[in-house]
Write a structure and sequence with these properties.
The structure is a single chain. 35% of the residues lie in helices and 19% in strands. The protein has 710 residues and is α/β, with parallel strands linked by helices. It starts with a strand and ends with a strand.
Length: 710
């Protein structure tokens, strides 16, 4: 049986293997720093393999800063950390699928790489803006235990903040910020699904550098937008003379094929749709033609005007929206038409921008069957009657031709790169939202409005998406996700990560305490609103879709009917307003676990366990989930089997037993359940034959189960 590694993957080694698969000749060997050899890349040869010309000189377009290479190394470097579950600080621990993780987000992202690789639909981050006053993450990995304890404690003995201010007087002012962001962006990209997208809030200080980094990490072709969010409704005078009333939201996708969802239609948009002919629904007037005539020559033809008799052609470079057969059916709604060859190749060629010799042949026109006077009378009758055909004539029938676009054919509007505060809120609104939750006090200085996050969720997620925020601050993202789910019946899940920075509010020790309390209060508020306020319509729509309209009910009665009341209660019960709290900590394993070769057999026998004494079964279980790349939000149960505690995760994705001296009967019972994975303590088996016997039991009863020990 293999041992669990409890170490994040070496991303550099994985990248080398990928390159080796494409360019095996570029692989060489180099010292591993431990007296051995490891695979390495011959970069000069690789550069030549990727070039059509002989490479000379060093000039190239690139974006760099002091510390860039080191930041890339840090992103790929494996760590020995874990996430320790904290049920006592969580809400609805057993049922929720949401996560709130405390710790340095770079290390947390490394730990989550396997479990959430390519699974996150939307990432939103609001990182430090590097104004000269915000803290900057101090990514120092080469430190002894005492130094680490000081950093994980976050404060010194006097309670002072353990973050360095990045003053503009620092010669590495921009470099330090870039070195902090770059590895986090690299790991964030790995988490995004192929149809995923990242939104990054930033101000003018580092926007240019952020765009450059994102071009490298996500690819220039995956740039979506640099959105200007109007953050204030009352601009203040600025010492530079130009008042700043917007912040940037930089948007990049994982793939170039990403497209935003439509935004809901507004009343102003719907007001443009009228019904002058008493049609079945409102419509607006649209162009009868479309561009690119040269590639749609079969849709360039004449239609005879039923009121004036003139031949109507598309304008230069344009074509009709439909082929002749469809247009013939539509135009017959005015009067009777037929197809006829007008020998008009020269006219059609002129419209297409090609020669008459090259234009498509045998493209017929739509002409009147009856004499003009008869056709005109028939068309006048249709005009008077109303409910005109889809293509109609302006100026009471005497003008040009236009097309109806019905309101039900327009699903919404695409987002623009300017988001005004009227639509997505402003900073004062965000503070008022916090005050409403926290009894008239705002314990966080720079929150984002929930409507701003709601806009992102609308255009970038579906109802079952995973949403991540690894600079979560006051937890606006979680608030927005829960409210969105309450509004549309979705089941979006959030993963929030926050460094437990000292709180600006005396009521809370850290920002994490503020974030967790906000999620609790916002969740209760969303559930109450779902139960009591304005949810009858949604409940009725859901009930009607599943069961049809209850007979004999008028609208008011229906909204209070037992069926709809039950539907409302079910929607409120289904709303996930909980979260599992996990905290970044040192590995569960003693140092000997990683370096047993440095100890002689006598010393090893004296050691009681290779697991740290303060770690619980739950700590070990979640450590195994990280090792095996399983999501941390699934249900599990713990039961006693012959006085041994057996943990079953997500109906058999993993079964673990960390007891000492597990009897063979318990091993057999676990194997009979045929889990996908099984984990035991190495020390549970006193001798090698016992361990071999476990392997044989699983080969016999559960040959597909992967078995490991810790």
């Amino acid at each position: 049986m293999d041992h669990m590694k409890f170490e994040t993957p070496d991303l550099t080694a994985q990248n080398i293997e990928r390159i080796a698969a494409l360019f095996p000749g570029c692989i060489t060997e180099g010292p591993d720093g431990k007296g051995g050899l490891k695979k390495a890349i011959n970069f000069e040869l690789l550069k030549q393999m990727l070039s059509d010309d002989v490479l000379e000189g060093d000039e190239a377009y690139e974006f760099t800063w002091v510390g860039k290479k080191a930041s890339i190394v840090e992103a790929n470097k494996p760590i020995r950390k874990t996430l320790r579950p904290c049920p006592e600080e969580s809400k609805n621990w057993d049922t929720t699928e949401n996560l709130y993780i405390e710790g340095d987000n770079l290390e947390v992202l490394k730990l989550l790489q396997e479990a959430y690789l390519g699974k996150v639909k939307m990432i939103y981050i609001d990182p430090p803006y590097n104004t000269g006053h915000d803290f900057i993450y101090n990514d120092r990995f080469e430190m002894d235990k005492q130094e680490y304890d000081q950093q994980i404690g976050l404060f010194d003995e006097e309670g002072n903040k353990q973050f360095a201010e990045n003053s503009e007087s620092n010669p590495r002012f921009h470099s330090d910020w870039c070195s902090m962001m770059y590895p986090r962006l690299m790991l964030a990209r790995n988490m995004l699904a192929d149809d995923g997208v990242i939104f990054i809030s930033i101000d003018d200080n580092e926007c240019a550098n952020l765009l450059q980094m994102c071009r490298e990490v996500f690819g220039e072709s995956n740039f979506v937008a640099d959105i200007s969010w109007q953050r204030t409704y009352s601009p203040r005078n600025d010492s530079k003379g130009v008042v700043s009333e917007v912040e940037h939201i930089v948007v990049y996708s994982k793939q170039t094929s990403w497209m935003p969802n439509y935004l809901p239609r507004t009343a102003e948009m719907d007001a443009k749709y009228k019904n002058p002919d008493n049609d079945i629904m409102p419509w607006t007037s649209s162009d009868a033609f479309a561009a690119d005539a040269s590639t749609h020559q079969g849709m360039v033809y004449a239609i005879q005007h039923p009121f004036t008799g003139e031949m109507i052609y598309p304008y230069s470079g344009a074509h009709w929206r439909y082929q002749q057969d469809t247009m013939l059916e539509i135009m017959n709604g005015w009067t009777q038409y037929t197809l006829k060859d007008l020998q008009d190749a020269e006219k059609r060629a002129q419209i297409c921008g090609i020669s008459s010799d090259d234009v498509k042949k045998d493209v017929k026109a739509l002409v009147l069957v009856e004499p003009l006077e008869v056709a005109q009378a028939q068309a006048e009758a249709v005009l008077e009657r109303g409910q005109w055909p889809r293509f109609y004539f302006t100026q009471n029938g005497r003008g040009g031709i236009r097309r109806k676009t019905y309101i039900n054919k327009v699903v919404g509007k695409l987002p623009t790169n300017f988001w005004p505060y009227e639509e997505v809120g402003h900073t004062d609104e965000a503070k008022k939202e916090l005050k409403n939750l926290f009894d008239s006090s705002a314990p966080f200085d720079t929150p984002k409005p929930v409507r701003l996050l709601d806009r992102m969720l609308t255009i970038a997620t579906d109802q079952d998406s995973i949403v991540m925020d690894f600079f979560s601050g006051s937890a606006t993202t979680a608030h927005a996700v829960m409210r969105k789910n309450a509004q549309d019946g979705g089941h979006r899940k959030f993963i929030l990560v926050q460094l437990p920075e000292k709180s600006p509010s005396p009521q809370y020790d850290t920002l994490c305490e503020i974030g967790k309390e906000r999620i609790r209060r916002a969740g209760d508020m969303a559930k109450k609103a779902l139960e009591e306020e304005g949810t009858a319509v949604r409940a009725m729509e859901k009930f009607k879709k599943e069961h049809g309209t209850p007979m004999g009910f008028v609208y008011a009665e229906w909204s209070d009917s037992p069926e709809v009341v039950t539907a409302k209660k079910k929607m409120a019960d289904d709303l996930d307003i909980g979260f599992r709290v996990l905290k970044l900590d040192e590995t569960n394993m003693e140092a000997v676990y990683y370096s047993a070769q440095e100890y002689d057999q006598q010393m090893l026998q004296k050691m009681e366990s290779n697991i740290k004494p303060d770690r619980t079964d739950l700590d070990l279980l979640f450590g195994c989930l990280l090792e095996w790349g399983l999501p941390l939000s699934m249900p599990y149960r713990s039961e006693q089997v012959e006085d041994c505690t057996v943990h079953t995760y997500n109906d058999g994705d993993l079964i673990a037993c960390f007891d000492e001296n597990i009897p063979e009967s318990v091993i057999r019972e676990i194997a009979k359940r045929k889990p996908l994975r099984a984990v035991f303590r190495d020390s549970s088996f006193a001798t090698s034959p016992e361990k071999i016997n476990v392997g044989e039991i699983f080969k016999l009863l559960a040959p597909d189960t992967r078995v490991k020990v810790i």
